[in-house]
Amino acid sequence: MAAQLTAALPSYSPATTKAAAGSSPSSHFLAYPSRPRNVRNGVRAQVSTTEPTAEPAPAAPAKPVKISKKQDEGVVTNKYRPKEPYVGRCLLNTRLTGDNAPGETWHMVFSTEGEVPYREGQSIGVIADGEDKNGKPHKLRLYSIASSAIGDFGDSKTVSLCVKRLVYTNDAGEVVKGVCSNFLCDLKPGSEVKITGPVGKEMLMPKDPNATIIMLATGTGIAPFRSFLWKMFFEEHEDYKVSNFSILDGSTTTQVQNSNPIPTMLALYLSH
Ligand SMILES: Cc1cc2nc3c(=O)[nH]c(=O)nc-3n(C[C@H](O)[C@H](O)[C@H](O)COP(=O)(O)OP(=O)(O)OC[C@H]3O[C@@H](n4cnc5c(N)ncnc54)[C@H](O)[C@@H]3O)c2cc1C
Questions:
Q1: Is 144 annotated as belonging to a binding site?
Q2: Which of 13, 54, 84, 96 has a Cα at 20 to 30 A from 169?
């Protein structure tokens, strides 16, 4: 396959939203209600009359019909909330970064038994075990899902994350460890993990199989794109046959061990 590699970043700009609404910029503009007249100092004057009007009242501006360009039909959000999270289990937790890397990043897989249905581009929340300094349960932290919708094992029963361990030195010279990232990076297979969500519809893959996707990421920002690439290259989807793929820069992959599938995946496709 003369594969070229194309990547894409959904756009969140108002312009795209307008285009997604299926209306031209001008028609979109016209659809906005005009600024009300008779408004002074924030108070709108009321005018009433029983006189017949010479001309019929202008029709209310038509609301533009919003047609999503993303694959968002049936996308589930917030099935699990912090008060009643889904309790999954860590199945696998593996360090991706090598010894010389400046940080520590882990790839982990949790069981969901299919109870946390998600799409590529969504995130989940994780509530770390333990309590905060006020004796309350920790607040959830969001993590981009790094697996495709059917999960790394292909059975739609798992969800994977790519997590960087947060460790920094504060102004007092103390080493501070981030609550949730350290909880996750230290998780042992078999341990329970509280999951909320899934959340987010902003980063869903586009419906159009010919859409140009540009993926820009630093660090663990790669996570959602791993799910995209996995779906595009490791799975058979009629609507996601990639025709053109190119890489501009793979700078951080040199510090990633072979357990990370992305370099392998990219190398495989570049060799075709
Ligand atoms: C939508 C979304 C998706 C995300 N996806 C991912 C992902 O895929 N992978 C991932 O690893 N993370 C991801 N994050 C970040 C993640 O949610 C957490 O914020 C991160 O893991 C840190 O959480 P923590 O509990 O370890 O740190 P916390 O205990 O919450 O500590 C974080 C706080 O420490 C302080 N701090 C941090 N660094 C320094 C510093 N150098 N100097 C001084 N103070 C500092 C800041 O006040 C910061 O708010 C995502 C966030 C969002 C919003």
A1: yes
A2: 96
